[in-house]
Amino acid sequence: xxxxxxxxxxxxxxxxxxxxxxxxxxxxxxxxxxxxxxxxxxxxxxxxxxxxxxxxxxxxxxxxxxxxxxxxxxxxxxxxxxxxxxxxxxxxxxxxxxxxxxxxxxxxxxxxxxxxxxx
Length: 119
Description:
Elements: E1 4-7, E2 10-13, E3 18-24, E4 33-39, E5 46-52, E6 57-59, E7 67-72, E8 77-82, E9 91-98, E10 108-109, E11 113-118
Parallel strand pairs: 2-11
Antiparallel strand pairs: 1-3, 3-8, 4-5, 4-9, 5-6, 7-8, 9-10, 9-11
């Protein structure tokens, strides 16, 4: 069982920055995959960034160079630093955890946090 709680969403003008945080209820040593997903109105849910237990990181092409995923192992927290935000980044952002390796799709999800970017 993994509980995930996101925070840090809000409203920002295009070009601005936000930092999202996800607090997990158990050690990252027991979680093989942590990811940030987002879902915008009228669009499918998409994976924007992820980090594995071993520290490998991936980004969606749309956010490369602008978003940075990181983790604080001691605090069981995953962060998503979002810079140079664009209107199209507007979405509900979800933290997710996958206990399997290879990942099978997240088994646990946070409640979501709204990010709204105005132009």
